[in-house]
Amino acid sequence: MIVQQITVGPFQENCYLLSDPDSDALAIIDPGDEPERIIAAVEKSGKTPEAIWITHAHLDHIGGIAGIKRKWDVPVHVHPLDLDLYKSGSVAAAKYGIPYEEPPASDRSLEEGQTLKLGALELRVLHVPGHAPGHVMFYGHGNAFVGDCLFAGSIGRTDLEFCNPAHLEQSLQRIVALPDATIVHPGHGDITSIGIEKRSNPFINGTARIVGA
Question: Given 8, 137, 168, 193, which is the most exposed site by the fewest CB atoms within 10 A?
């Protein structure tokens, strides 16, 4: 598995290019902004994009979709419980006063237990709501792309519209049940691992509580 992280936009969101080393297959995970930078990185990789996978549909994770779709008409995968968020990005962008291009309609649904294939790679879709109702993570080959559920030393916000603190607490328990060696690729900030977070993250080791959970 080849993973390239590209941090984009005013929210410093992590977009990931995931590719199979033994084929041309590549997936774009959470293209949140600056589509021209993402496109340039894909072209430099020499790979062929096959899909856009969305962990959740907050505007900082979907703002680059329109630009990428103009370049490559690849399917956008979103969990159906996040479609309201997906369609309301412009409203959120107006509140923050930032430019935003509405993405085209999503093409395919993500669901719990689904297997996404990328060349010889297989990643499992896990529904991990809380930060957003349709939040998912992609797990396989010792790597977990967790969106905004879990960060290095912290967790995702639970004070936004559609957030649910109790659901996030349950989702975090599910995530940290993965093997300690699992590499965690978060939606913001530094890459970490399950083992590191179990030892040092106060929301995981029990020294801090999620408000409202």
Answer: 193
